[in-house]
Amino acid sequence: MEFFTGDQHLCHANAIKYFNRPFSDVETMNETMVGNWNRTVSDEDEVYILGDFTMRDTEYADRFLARLRGKKYLIRGNHDYFAQHYEGRQLEWVKDYYELQRGGACFVLCHYPLADWNRKKHGAYHLHGHAHGDFRYNLRQLAEGTRRYDVGVDANDFTPVARDAILRFFKDTENSVPKNEKGRRGRGSLGNDKDEE
Question: Of 102, 146, 149, 152, which has the most beta carbons under 10 Å away?
């Protein structure tokens, strides 16, 4: 199974204040995220980290990554200084952008939220971090008919999100919208493009 996450800001004490995180100190924040990750992800799973894992150096990042289950891939964020010239051993690869095809769906992965993305009008999902919002952000995307989802820890209980959970999130909402409302949402929305043409 594939999982998505981002914006951990491990060992960044100011992240608690800046992003209004419910932790008393940075050690509690770090260990909560490690525990949530390892309870959710198996060793066989793939985890796509959509940026801002830590502001620390490669040696520190690798020590932390070694504690986390699964095969790990990094989409570089603006605070992943360690990943500028990554020579560590814990990540399968480091990229700025990636398109993942799984389970008949296309996922466009980028640290930053994009207004438009490849195959958007054909139902592709855009997964991102960077925003540090809460889950209401994802609900607003649904209300607007946009297949954009913030996988960052602040919007997902500090836990990686499974591909199937994201697909269910959009599918359940699509099924709950009356048929006559789907056509009003615009191309690339949760509605069927054929209904809108």
Answer: 152
Is 12 among the domain residues? Answer: yes
Q: Residue 50 domain-assigned?
A: yes
Select from 151, 99, 95 the least CA-distant residue to 120.
Answer: 99
pTM: 0.86
- Report how far residue 2's alpha carbon sits from residue 93's, in angstroms, rounded to the nearest whole number: 15
**Sequential DSSP letters for 105-120:** EEEEEESSPPSS-TTG
Q: Are 62 and 88 in contact (CB under 8 A)?
A: yes
Let me know if residue 161 belongs to a domain: yes
Confidence check: pLDDT of 184 > 50: no
Which residues pair with residue 150 across a beta bridge?
A: 128
Q: What is the pLDDT of residues 128-160, one digit of tens each?
A: 999 988 999 999 999 999 999 999 999 999 999
User: What does the DSSP 8-state code read for residue 155?
Assistant: G
122 phi, psi to nearest 5 deg: -110, 20
Structure confidence at residue 186 (pLDDT): 30
* Total tally of structural domains belonging to the chain: 1
CATH code for the domain of 53: 3.60.21.10
Greatest extent of the chain over all pairs of C-alpha atoms, in Å: 55
108 part of a folded domain = yes
Task: Decide: helix, strand or coil at residue 15.
Answer: helix
Reported as a single tens digit per residue, the pLDDT across 57-112 is 888 889 899 999 999 999 999 988 888 878 778 999 999 999 999 989 999 999 99
